[in-house]
Amino acid sequence: MIQLIGLLLVIVITKLVWDYVKEREGKPKVKPSKPNQGKVIDVGDRWSNKNNMPYRMQNHLITGKDLGLYQLFSELLKDSKYAAFPRVRLAEVITVPMTANNAEEYYNRIRDKTLDLVIFELPDLTPQVVISIEVSEDKRRGAGDSFSKKAIESCGLGYFSIDINSPQDIEKLKAELIELGLEL
Predict the structure, then answer these.
(1) What is the pTM of this model?
(2) Residue in 101, 104, 108, 113 with CA at minimum distance from that of residue 141
(3) How far is Cα 182 from Cα 184, in angstroms, rounded to an integer?
(4) Please, are residues 159 and 129 in contact by the beta-carbon 8 Å criterion?
(5) N or C: which end of the chain has fewer CB within 10 A?
(6) Residue 172, exposed/middle/buried by CB under 10 A (0-12, 13-18, 19+)?
(7) 93 vs 29: CA distance, rounded Å
(8) DSSP string across the chain
(9) What pLDDT shows up at residue 74?
(10) Are 164 and 62 in contact (CB under 8 A)?
(11) Distance (Å, rounded) from C-alpha 128 to C-alpha 180?
(12) What is the pLDDT of residue 113?
């Protein structure tokens, strides 16, 4: 009986040693690094000294015709309870309920899209109308904007597109906004 217990102990110890050796052999060996192979960015120093950070302020949020259109809508809405904001993320205006089928996929479709101009009701900034700036020569738009338009309209928001290269009639724009439900 003692011989059987001794044999079992030898087998268990052998198995433990065998597993330990196999585990050590399976691990990749760490190669010694070569000096000066690459610089490591010390994030701690970068954050503590703002003069070493690579960021620069943009000169303008929008320029050219986009800026002119924003100023036109700002003037049009000046004495109303609405305000226009440029470059608003679609996911900030509409949302996908987590209970919806394929909610994550639907959210991913809107997450990175940016709206050209959104009219919000003051003072609580409730979105009312989305304005899409169209450029007659721009062939890249279409399917993506079609999806955005359908998503926006499915939420009950007003939507219209405007050709930035065409002269804008203020009274016509005002009539379109009234038709979309704004009280101007």
Answers:
(1) 0.68
(2) 113
(3) 6
(4) yes
(5) N
(6) exposed
(7) 52
(8) -HHHHHHHHHHHHHHHHHHHHHHHHHSPPPPPPPTTSSPPP-HHHHHH-GGG------S-SS-HHHHHHHHHHHHHTTTSSEEEEEEEEHHHH----TTSTTHHHHHHHHHT-EEEEEEEETTTTEEEEEEEEE-TT--S-SHHHHHHHHHHHHTT-EEEEEETTS---HHHHHHHHHHTT---
(9) 93
(10) no
(11) 9
(12) 93
Q: CA–CA separation, 180 vs 183, rounded Å?
A: 9
pLDDT digits (tens, 9 = 90+) for 124-145: 999 999 999 887 665 555 445 7
Rounded CA-CA distance 166/172 in Å is: 13
Residue where the block lists tokens 């309870």: 81
Q: What is the separation of C-alpha 29 from the centre of its chain, rounded to a whole number of angstroms?
A: 40
Contact by Cβ (8 Å): 110, 90:
yes
- Picking from 133, 138, 152, the residue whose alpha carbon sits closest to that of residue 94 is 152
Residue 147 tokens, joined: 């999806």
